[in-house]
Design goal:
Distance between the termini: 27 Å
Structural class: mainly beta
Strand content: 35-45%
Number of domains: 1
Strand order of the largest sheet: 3-4-5-6-9-10-8-7
CATH class: Mainly Beta
Order of helices and strands: HEEEEEEEEHEE
Oligomer: single chain
């Protein structure tokens, strides 16, 4: 893995990641990967040159204009059972950044999780995540005042049993973003699928 992402996963002591994403009790499992899979699409600034990676700075806000998302970001770690924490189910739903992943704009896959529904409170912050399309913009605002802008490269809906851990958590050689929530049919046991948005850094601002 890249040095930053290697340190992050090592600090977490991870053998298994759970990508929780909303609803009531569902928390889909995925094995942490150490592969080298990316999404294969090059980020562009419009000048033909890839934007330079940013220094590490904790993300504080996420904006996705195409689906009306403007959310503060929680910091998520590991639960007592060594699974990835998910944002709490509250009336004022917020997404959360997994703090053992790179920060947005650093080389590697930065991982942000959000709910699709929040129980009796209704819709979650990532309720329309599956509507995103290639090229649409995602902006992460960082604690140091910088902005990392990403362009969606693809959106996947997969069965939780087939969660593509290599693609989500595996090594990449540029700054990328992963947004994860639940999707598919909902039963008493929860949602059957995960929706995963892959995006690559397309621009930065101080």
């Amino acid at each position: 893995m890249t040095p930053l992402s290697r340190r992050g996963f090592a600090a977490a002591g991870l053998a298994t990641l759970l990508t929780g994403c909303g609803g009531r009790t569902d928390r889909p499992a995925a094995t942490a990967a150490r592969g080298s899979k990316g999404d294969g699409a090059a980020a562009s600034t419009g000048t033909g040159a890839a934007p330079r990676p940013l220094a590490r700075s904790v993300p504080v806000r996420l904006l996705i204009p195409a689906i009306g998302v403007d959310t503060p970001l929680l910091r998520l770690g590991l639960a007592a059972d060594r699974t990835v924490q998910v944002p709490p189910v509250t009336a004022h739903d917020r997404a959360g950044w997994y703090r053992h992943s790179p920060t947005p704009g650093q080389v590697g896959p930065s991982v942000i999780l959000g709910h699709v529904t929040v129980g009796a409170y209704g819709d979650g912050v990532f309720r329309h995540l599956a509507r995103l399309r290639r090229g649409e913009t995602i902006t992460a605002r960082l604690e140091n005042g910088a902005r990392a802008e990403f362009a969606v490269t693809r959106v996947r809906t997969v069965a939780k049993a087939d969660f593509p851990a290599d693609e989500v958590y595996g090594d990449v050689n540029r700054p990328e973003l992963r947004l994860i929530t639940c999707g598919g049919p909902h039963t008493g046991a929860g949602y059957s699928d995960n929706v995963i948005v892959f995006a690559a850094l397309s621009g930065t601002a101080p």
